[in-house]
Design brief:
- This protein has a domain of 231 residues: 3-Layer(bba) Sandwich (FAD/NAD(P)-binding domain), CATH 3.50.50.
- The chain is globular.
- Strands 2, 3, 4, 5, 6, 18 and 19 form a 7-stranded mixed β-sheet that branches. Strands 8-17-9-10-13 form a 5-stranded parallel β-sheet, covered by helices on one side.
- The protein is α/β, with parallel strands linked by helices and 606 residues long.
- Helices cover 32% and strands 15% of the residues.
């Protein structure tokens, strides 16, 4: 039987908190949020809910004749993944490239997320890709959505990716035609395009989800999802000034990264705002600032990659000579290094030091709530009781003070969520909150099948679907290629690597994919396919190495969220996990693989 350790022991004598009490509080908070339905608690946006993914930003629909032509490389998705892949392919000499994008322009996430206050939560000097290639430095430490969208379009222009691109177009099916060794890509515009190579950059946050609250279809007022913000209803724009909410009672469901940014703007103008919370986010200092022109002018060649790697090293737990970014993401590792130095002679092992440092950091987060929120009861409800990185950290300086406004009410559902939606409002603990509008800040599908998130099925050799092929678990080489699906590349975290700065991963994947495709085209190779042995070896590697470094976030001990499949880990999640030694080691695996120039594990047919 394990006996709780005494805080007054030598190990914990100098702490100003009780680790055992926090462990127990974390367990209690997690337990009351667990639900038997896990990810099934959310609704798919189709049928009666399909309008939640309509595009409110296009001026007019594109009308064109269906295409039945052929391209060398087809990229699915016009966000950072598609843009970065297109850029590296262009640099490798590939001319015949087409991007298919369901939005009206490039941008991906940043085409859709135009809600008020939207900003990147990773420093823009490392988050925005290809900065040196375009000779661009963002205007702020955390760029706003409009700047990121404009920059995405600039990448498209710089690399001539608008040429041949298809916007307002959704892929509905991919099917391998063995007779011609080409993919037949069908779309909602009745296209049937032949593609020699396909790279799927659908994005990890691609398909909005809705909470499966009883009565969600009964509400008679106005509703929309934050990824399709309705400025016609709210007035204003991404900078705020939502004047049309002045006489509206508004509900926001969700308190994740999106709500943290938009709630201050809704609270500023709405007659009454109710924020319905299931789990509070950790909200650290944002501290945004304009770019220093002198600093920007003195940047040396190679600065962008160096800065990305510095950040990735720190958040991966690898000490660096200096912290170039210096924000809430890297603060934890700084505290950890300090604590390692101070722990000498106390008998603490590495996991204990890491846990105690995490407690210390989260105590800072909780103390910040007390500093900024006037009502002690509201403040207590807003405090997150879980390990940092159990949920994606957020950074904002206006969210917490918003709850001091007399027109803003936090409705804490104590981990249970909204009980029911009626014609006139929402019910929690028997009380109905009547509203005119419900804004769903409920995020995107994570953990559902690849095909469902992508929005189309992929049929490989002999008509076998990717869903069936992966029915017993994901199977690939480096997370990018799967046997039975030749000339097809995937860009995702699964079986590749986790990075807090996702565009950094996309950069490494794009470089790798462009290397393979450009070689195949130069050598007139017809098909590129993973060998059975290489795929099996990589799956074995993923399983044996487990989820170390940042790949272990959102573990089963964490509060439910999209990181851990809402607290009900998928039995196949270990097989689809990121590379267990972390992203730094994974990037080195890819680099060494390319350096050998043997294309080990791939089968080429001319």
């Amino acid at each position: 039987m394990n006996t709780p350790q005494d805080k007054t022991s030598d190990k914990y004598a100098d702490l100003d908190f009780d680790p055992d009490a926090l462990r127990e509080r974390y367990r209690e908070e997690r337990a009351k949020r667990l639900r038997a339905d896990g990810n099934d608690q959310f609704l798919e946006v189709r049928g009666d809910f399909a309008h939640y993914v309509d595009d409110p930003y296009i001026e007019s629909a594109i009308e064109r004749e269906p295409l039945t032509d052929e391209v060398e490389v087809l990229l699915i998705g016009g966000g950072f993944g598609g843009l970065q892949a297109g850029a590296r392919l262009r640099e490798a000499g590939v001319k015949d490239i087409r991007i298919i994008e369901k939005g009206g322009d490039f941008g991906g996430t940043w085409y859709w997320n135009r809600y008020p206050g939207a900003q990147c939560d990773i420093e823009s000097y490392i988050y925005l890709p290809l900065l040196e290639e375009l000779g661009y430095v963002p205007s702020e430490k955390y760029a706003r959505a409009s700047e990121i969208l404009s920059y995405s379009q600039a990448i498209g222009r710089h690399y001539d990716l608008y040429e041949n691109a298809l916007f307002q177009t959704e892929v509905t099916e991919m099917r391998w035609d063995e007779s011609i060794s080409r993919w037949i890509v069908s779309t909602n515009k009745n296209d049937k395009i032949r593609a020699h190579f396909v790279a799927m950059a659908n994005g990890p946050m691609h398909r909005p989800k809705l909470p499966g609250i009883p009565g969600i279809a009964d509400f008679k007022g106005h509703t929309f999802h934050t990824s399709r913000w309705d400025y016609e209803y709210t007035g204003g724009g991404p900078e705020g000034d939502l004047k049309r909410l002045a006489n509206k009672r508004v509900a926001v469901i969700g308190t994740g990264a999106t709500a943290i940014q938009c709630v201050p703007f809704v609270g500023e103008t709405a007659q009454q705002l109710y924020v319905f919370q299931r789990t509070p986010s950790s909200v650290d200092v944002r501290g945004n600032s304009p770019t220093d022109p002198k600093w920007a002018a003195e940047l040396q060649p190679g600065w962008h990659k160096h800065r990305m790697e510095n950040f990735n090293g720190l958040v991966s737990g690898v000490p660096q000579p200096e912290d170039l970014v210096k924000d809430g993401w890297t603060d934890l590792i700084g505290m950890m290094i300090r604590n390692f130095k101070e722990a000498s002679g106390k008998g603490l092992n590495v996991p204990e030091i890491m846990e105690l440092t995490n407690f210390e950091k989260m105590n800072e987060i909780r103390a910040r709530v007390d500093e900024l929120v006037e009502d002690p009861d509201v403040a207590e409800s807003l405090k997150p009781y879980y390990q940092m990185f159990c949920k994606r950290p957020t950074f904002n300086d206006e969210y917490l003070p918003t709850f001091n406004r007399p027109n803003v009410t936090l409705v804490d559902t104590h981990g249970q969520g909204v009980d029911r939606i009626t014609e006139n409002g929402l019910i929690v603990d028997g009380q109905e909150y009547e509203v005119d509008c419900i804004i769903f800040a409920t995020g995107f599908e994570v953990g559902t099948s690849y095909a469902r998130r992508a929005g189309y099925e992929i049929y490989g050799r002999e008509g076998h679907s990717l869903s069936d092929r992966w029915a017993d678990g994901m199977s690939s080489l480096h997370g990018m290629q799967s046997r039975g699906f030749p000339n097809c590349f995937m860009m995702s975290i699964s079986q590749s690597a986790f990075t807090a700065n996702f565009p950094h991963l996309l950069e490494e994947l794009s470089t790798h994919i462009a290397y393979i495709i450009s070689h195949a085209l130069k050598e007139k190779i017809e098909t590129v396919e993973v060998s059975k042995e290489a795929e099996e070896a990589w799956v074995k590697t993923i399983i044996e190495k487990g989820t170390g470094a940042m790949g272990g976030i959102g573990g089963p001990e964490c509060t439910p969220g999209y990181y851990n499949n809402e607290g009900r880990p998928n039995p196949q999640s270990l097989q689809a996990a990121p590379y267990g030694e972390g992203s730094i080691a994974f990037f080195k695996v890819l680099e060494n693989w390319r350096a050998e120039q043997s294309f080990e594990g791939l089968e080429f047919k001319s």
